[in-house]
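call fold(seq) -> tokens
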Amino acid sequence: MLCDGKVFILWLFRNFMSWRSIAKMIENNTYSDGKTVDLIGFIEKQGFALKRNGGNHDIFSKGRITVAVPRHRNIGKGLIIKILKEAKII
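ret:
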């Protein structure tokens, strides 16, 4: 069950997330599942550019940092955190 307002808001907007909501998750240190396109939008807003398309992943780079983002419709919160850590955003 939903126990506090933040969890409810994240649950409500799970299917309507944007890069702004991912930024808000980082700011509040509360994470939930999200859409891959929103994560890609957020990464691009942080200065990453699409380097190439792999078999099942899109590869983004910014300087010497390279991040692989899977091409799935939805992406789990654990993987979102891992990708953001690899990108040195969190």
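Confidence is low (pLDDT under 50) at residues 1-5.
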